[in-house]
Amino acid sequence: AQSVTQLDSHVSVSEGTPVLLRCNYSSSYSPSLFWYVQHPNKGLQLLLKYTSAATLVKGINGFEAEFKKSETSFHLTKPSAHMSDAAEYFCVVSDNGGYSTLTFGKGTMLLVSP
Amino acid sequence: NAGVMQNPRHLVRRRGQEARLRCSPMKGHSHVYWYRQLPEEGLKFMVYLQKENIIDESGMPKERFSAEFPKEGPSILRIQQVVRGDSAAYFCASSPHPDSYEQYFGPGTRLTVT
Predict the structure, then answer these.
(1) With a cut of 70, which residues of chain A have pLDDT below it?
(2) Nearest C-alpha of chain B: how many angstroms from A90?
(3) How close B2 comes to chain A (CA, Å)?
(4) Which residues of chain B are modeled with pLDDT < 50?
């Protein structure tokens, strides 16, 4: 069984300051991990993915995440927040056991103030 | 190359009516996944289909819900005798093959049951 815990339901930052969205996972197999972003009333867009290659993964829009097996974490970071980053972010895990069904965290709403 | 298409984008049904949600996968994709997003929740897996086959329906409610992906045409998620608790956003995703851990999401259908 696999599960994802996003530790914060809301994160508030000021524009230009760093962003940290926390995610812990559990998985029976070697997992693939993803971060998706959802803007209001829009679909989901893939930010980045980890699939057992480099542990530091770079994604779109300046986001990156580091896979830490010892801590079972996959936190999302960005050095400097932009107003357009305000959205909901989902950490997602997929077991590498055949076909992949995705298990989503409950989401973290990122609020960016000027 | 058009992305995953879902229609309608918004659907309002009265209690007891039927809801039919459509999903056209990306060109060349023959694997379709349906997810449901309840308010304040992450997405929950419902069903995984290949052309003319249901592969995994472990996330589908036992009654009133059904899904199909015919040889021709879009995938359909059908909810019979809708109740207020069915109000949610329903997302479809597609992938080109089963061990592709990256799924491409549509914009979702927001179902409101009055």
Answers:
(1) 96-100
(2) 7
(3) 14
(4) none
